Amino acid sequence: MIPEIEKLLNDQITYEATASAQYLSMACWADVNGYNGVAEFFYTQSEEERVHMTKLVKFINERSGAAVIPAIDKPRDDFKSLLELFEIFLESEEFVTAKINNIIYECLQHKDYNVHNFMQWYVAEQLEEEATARTLLDKLKIIGGDKSGHYLFDRDISTFQAPEE
Ligand code: OFO
Predict the structure, then answer these.
(1) Taking a C-beta distance cutoff of 8 angstroms, is the pair 53, 20 a contact?
(2) d(CA 18, CA 21)
(3) Is the confidence at residue 162, as pLDDT, over 70?
(4) Which of 49, 55, 100 should be mutated for ligand 1, with most atoms under 8 A from CB?
(5) pLDDT bracket for residue 159 (50, 70, 90)
(6) Which of 3, 8, 64, 93 shows a CA-CA span of 20 to 30 A to 102?
(7) What are phi and psi of 74, to 5 degrees?
(8) pLDDT at 164
(9) Atom of ligand 1 nearest to the CA of 52
(10) DSSP for 66-113?
(11) Is any ligand 1 atom within 6 A of the Cβ of residue 96?
C-alpha cells in the first residue's frame, strides 16, 4: 500500500471513530432529556460510524498495510437544544466528507485506483448522510422553539427516509 495513502486511511479511522463517539454522546443527551426517538436515531448513527471505521481497518490490513486504532478525544456532551445537536451532526458529516474528498484527490495524484474504487462507497454514504442531516436540521429550523413541534419531531424521526439524491 502506498504509504501516503495508508496514512490518510488511518487518519480516516480516527474521524470515523470520533463521529461514532460523538453520536453516542448525542444519543445519551437525547435519552436523558426525554427525546427517545432522537436517541435511537443517534445510537444507530453511532453504530454505522463504527462499521465505517471497521471497514477501513479491515481494508488496510487486507492490503498489506497496518491499521492503527487511535485514541480519540472526549466527545462533546454539553448540548443546549435539539437544534444544536443537529447542527453538530451536519458539521461532523461535512468534515468527514471533506476528508474523504481529500483521500480521493490523493488517490488520483498517486494513481492508486484500488483505494479510489474502495472509497466510492464512502462518497455515496456521505452524500446520503449529509442530505439526512440537512433535511432534519431544516425541519428543526421550521419548528423553532415550539415544544409540541419538538415532541412530534422526536416521535416521527424513526419514520424519516433520507431524500433521494
Ligand atoms: Fe462515516 O459516515 Fe458519515 O461520517
Answers:
(1) yes
(2) 5
(3) no
(4) 49
(5) confident
(6) 64
(7) -60, 130
(8) 59
(9) 1
(10) ---PPP-PPPP-----HHHHHHHHHHHHHHHHHHHHHHHHHHHHTT-H
(11) yes
